[in-house]
Amino acid sequence: MLWHKGWRVNAKRVARIWRREGLKVPSKQPKRGRLWLNEGSCVRLRPEYPNHVWSYDFVEDRTHEGRKYRMLNIIDEFSRECLAIRINRKLKATDVIDALSDLFILRGIPTHIRSDNGPEFIAHNLRNRLATLGAKTAYIMPGSPWENGYCESFNSKLRDELLNGEIFYTLKEAKIVIEGWRRHYNTIRPHSSLRYQPPAPEVLQWPAAQPQPASPATPALASNQIIN
To answer: Which residues have CB under 8 Å from 4's CB, separation 6+?
Structure first.
């Protein structure tokens, strides 16, 4: 982020300041062995191009008075772009279908959609709708959230970077602030997996060329036309 703003600074110096100020440092991850699963498993499914694999999941939080609200996060695993965050007090299978329908119109239909086995995601109406449109479901094993790693990683960033530091007094306030963060996440926030580029950077559009008024005819040319 400093490099994008024009700072000429060494990464090691930034890391030293980062540690000295007591900022959050990622803990070392334990080593894990390979998952020897069959080729058709959900874990083996890897995104290869945009709209290849989407994933979605629910995140819950509470407003200031203690009332719960839910967020439906939908991401494109290949580009890491957050396609939508649907927010409401209650979200059911019909809300999932409605959110996906809007995205299908804007983005097209993905090849696969990865999710856990929550009742909203395994509902017959949702599965029939996806099957009719040609999108395949990829359900993870029960109790294995790491199999939905892309969406779980996004959920963690959403909570660490926004939800843990904000107090929302109304649901409307939560919708506006979270949508603003989603746009920042997509267009500005750098991602290490994307060579420190945002998933969907904003494109500057040059203003269209304005038509220039016709130059007035010179006196000599005008006189010649009159003579002719």
So the answer is: 190
Whether 186 contacts 199, CB under 8 Å: yes
Helix, strand or coil, per DSSP, at residue 151: helix
Give the whole-angstrom CA distance, residue 214 versus residue 106: 42
Distance CA 6, CA 135 (A): 43
Q: In the chain, what percentage of residues exceed pLDDT 70? A: 79
pLDDT at 29 exceeding the cut of 70? no
Q: What is the DSSP string of 74-105?
A: EEETTT--EEEEEEES---HHHHHHHHHHHHH
Q: Which two tokens stand for residue 128?
A: 């029939």
In the structure encoding, which two tokens stand for residue 65, read together?
Answer: 């008075």
Tell me phi and psi for residue 160, to 5 degrees: -70, -40
